[in-house]
Structures are given as structure tokens and as C-alpha cells.
């Protein structure tokens, strides 16, 4: 399965999601299956790397719950979760190379399901800067590929 690299502006337009063009870039990996299966596979792939998930953000539930309170008019996701974690080994290496890599820590993977009839499911992560953050990007890619069977 080939990942999809989209700038935030293009990703949000392509996925019919309203967003800020300054949000950065995301790498999306299509998942063939249910959202619940994708979240299970993503958690298992993170844990399989010997990492601990520090926090799970149920951002899809929050957006749905607060939609009317904040004047929302559209469903952004059918489901969305973000898994936050770090790697002491990898983080040490990338921050020894450049202490300002602290700006990218902790790392995260997200699983989203788009609203509507197709309900497309994606596993993804931020596209990190080239250079000293490549080791982290490789780790995130490995997790996404394992989760999606790629």
C-alpha cells in the first residue's frame, strides 16, 4: 500500500475537511477495513516497536460533542483518534543531532475515518523535516505500514 503525502491545504480540500494551511503536512496510508480494526492495528504496531502509548486523544468524539456549541456546521470526521508516544532511544539520537528537534516530540500516529457514504479510513502521521528527523519519520512509516498491512 503506497502512502499519500499531502500538504495540509490539499489534504483538507481533498478529504473535504476544513483546515488551516499552516497546519503542516500529513502522510496518509489508506486502511482497507473498519475504523475499529485500524485503531487496534495501529496500537499494536506502536506497542510492537517496544513503545508505550502515553495518551490517546479522542479528537473525533470531541469535535462531534462540541460541534453545535462552537457553531460547527459540518461533520469533520466520522471517527478520529491520535496516539501519542515517544522513544527514548530515537529521541536521544535526533536531539543530540539537533536539540531543537524537541519541537517534534512527542510523536503521534492518527487514525481517521471520513464522514459520508464511503467512510474512508486512514492511518497517518506528520511529515517531519528532512535531515536529523529522518529516523523518527522512518519509525512512523514502519508503524503505519505494519498497521495497514503495507
Write structural notes for this entry:
This protein is of the alpha+beta class and 150 residues long. It is built from 5 helices and 6 strands, in the order E-H-E-H-E-H-E-H-E-E-H. A 6-stranded antiparallel beta sheet has the order 1-2-6-5-4-3. It starts with a strand and ends with a helix.
List keywords for this structure.
25% strand, 36% helix, globular, alpha+beta, 150 residues, 5 helices, six-stranded antiparallel sheet
- Give me the strand/helix succession: EHEHEHEHEEH
Binned strand content: 25-35%
Structural class comes to: alpha+beta
Give the terminus-to-terminus CA distance. Answer: 5 Å
Shape: globular
Q: Radius of gyration over alpha carbons?
A: 15 Å
Largest sheet: 6 strands, antiparallel
Query: Low-confidence segments, ≥5 residues, pLDDT <50?
Result: 6-23
Number of helices: 5
The percent of residues in helical segments reads 25-40%
Q: What integer is the average pLDDT?
A: 87
**Major sheet: order of its strands?**
1-2-6-5-4-3
Please report the total strand number as a whole number: 6
Topology:
Layout: E1 4-7, H1 8-14, E2 25-31, H2 35-48, E3 52-57, H3 59-66, E4 79-86, H4 88-97, E5 107-113, E6 121-126, H5 134-148
Helix pairs in contact: 2-5
In short:
With 150 residues, the chain is an alpha+beta fold. The chain has five helices and six strands.
Amino acid at each position: 500500500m503506497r502512502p499519500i503525502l499531502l500538504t495540509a491545504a490539499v489534504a483538507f480540500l481533498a478529504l473535504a475537511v476544513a483546515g488551516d494551511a499552516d497546519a503542516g503536512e500529513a502522510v496518509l496510508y489508506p486502511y482497507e477495513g473498519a475504523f475499529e480494526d485500524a485503531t487496534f492495528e495501529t496500537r499494536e504496531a506502536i506497542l510492537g516497536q517496544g513503545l508505550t502509548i502515553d495518551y490517546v486523544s479522542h479528537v473525533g468524539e470531541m469535535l462531534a460533542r462540541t460541534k453545535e456549541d462552537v457553531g460547527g456546521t459540518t461533520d469533520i470526521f466520522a471517527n478520529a483518534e491520535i496516539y501519542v508516544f515517544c522513544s527514548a532511544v530515537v529521541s536521544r539520537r535526533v536531539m543530540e543531532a539537533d536539540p531543537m528537534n524537541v519541537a517534534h516530540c512527542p510523536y503521534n500516529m492518527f487514525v481517521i475515518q471520513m464522514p459520508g457514504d464511503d467512510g474512508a479510513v486512514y492511518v497517518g502521521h506528520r511529515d517531519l523535516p528532512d535531515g536529523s528527523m529522518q529516523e523518527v519519520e522512518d519509525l512512523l512509516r514502519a508503524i503505519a505500514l505494519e498497521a495497514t498491512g503495507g
